[in-house]
Structure formats: structure tokens, C-alpha cells
Amino acid sequence: MQLFYEIIPVFLFFIAFKFYDIYVATVVGIVTTLIQVILTRVVLKKWDNKQLITLSVFLFFGGMTLYFHDPIFVKWKPTIIFWIFSLVILFTQFFSHRPLMQRLMENALQDKACVPKQVWKQINLLWGMFFIFLGGINLYIAYHYSNDTWVNFKFYGITSAFFILSIAQALFLMRYMSEEKHQK
Predict the structure, then answer these.
(1) Which of 71, 173, 162, 156 is nearest to 115 (CA)?
(2) 3-class DSSP string for 25-50
(3) Which of 30, 119, 137, 146 is deepest in the core (most CB within 10 A)?
(4) Who's near 137: CB < 8 A, 6+ residues apart?
(5) Using CA atoms, how far apart are residues 38 and 70, in angstroms rounded to an integer?
(6) What's CA 175's distance to the chain center, in Å?
(7) Which of 164, 159, 165, 161 is nearest to 14 (CA)?
């Protein structure tokens, strides 16, 4: 459910681009992300750091796109966000007691001890490298292809990549949960 909630700004950006242009899409993306941050604050009574980072980067790079009337700035937005997330994830890999991905996903598990720490470190490293790779691919497409191709990649390619990695990770983690059941 969280994935669908978080994809709303990307989806509305995509729709606005298809019906108008990248500048209208940028405004729609910024406004939608702002509404999302406010809704999260009102409903959950907390700030979501990931959303705040996304909004801050979107405001800056989207604002630059609108001010200079140059889409390259908004095209940099996903890369900057991905690389910030990668830095945070990899920082916890080496300088934290528990890797970030373990902290984020452990609550979804019934038995928090069923996945070994080394496995969490592997998952954490995988996500950190995934974000670096995705940021690089985004820049390549942003500079070598049309706005239309970039927007399609942003919506279809990035969304699919997240979905595929999430499914693969869930299948990988199920192995450890299954082992735990068999040992009891």
C-alpha cells in the first residue's frame, strides 16, 4: 500500500507531462509531493524524512527548471534523491549497529530474529548499490534521450525496477522465515 501512496506524485507528473509539458508536470509534481507530506503529517502525526528529502530536492530542482525554463534540473531530481538515499543506506552499513534496511523492514516480520544480521547487511548493500545504479541510469537517459523517453523511463522503468527488487527481496527473505518455521 505504501508503494502505491508514494507513486502518486510520479503518476501525476507522468499524466501532466503527457497532457501538457514538462513544466506543468513539474508544478504538478511539486504540489502533489507537498500535499503528500502534509497528509502524512496530519494523518500519521509525524514527518516522513524520505518525503521531506524528496520535497526539498523537488522544490529546489523543480524551481530551477521553472526559473531557467530548462528541464535538465528536474531530470537531475531522481538522481540526487537516489544518491542521498544511497549515502544514508551505505553509511548505516558501516557506521551503525543495525543497517537501515533492517530498521525499515524488520517491523513487517513476525519474528524479528529470523533473518541473520549478515543477510540484513547484504540487503542493505544491495539497496545502496541499487540507488547508485538507478541514479546513474537516470542521468544517462536524461542527457541522451528526449524528455518523452526520460518521463517514460521515470514512470515505467524506475517503478518497475523498484517493484522487481522488492519482490526479489521478499522472496529472498521468505527463505529465512521458512527456515525458522521448520526449526520449531
Answers:
(1) 173
(2) HHHHHHHHHHHHHHHHHHHHCCCCHH
(3) 30
(4) 153, 157
(5) 28
(6) 25
(7) 159
**Tens digit of each residue's pLDDT (9 = 90 or more) over 81-139:** 999 999 999 999 999 888 999 888 877 766 666 788 899 999 999 999 999 999 999 99
Residue with more model confidence, 176 or 113: 176
Full-model pTM: 0.88
Q: What is the 3-state secondary structure (H, E, C) of 61-81?
A: HHHHHHHHCCCHHHHHHHHHH
User: What distances in angstroms separate CA 66 from CA 28, 44, 47, 97, one per listed residue?
Assistant: 12, 32, 27, 42
Q: How many Cβ atoms are within 10 Å of 118's Cβ, its own excluded? A: 8
| Integer CA distances (angstroms), 128 to 121, 168, 169, 173, in order | 10, 16, 14, 17
- Nearest CA among 37, 57, 36, 55 for reference residue 47: 37
In three-state secondary structure terms, 138 is helix
Measured over the CA atoms of residue 25, residue 30, residue 33 and residue 38, the dihedral's sign is negative
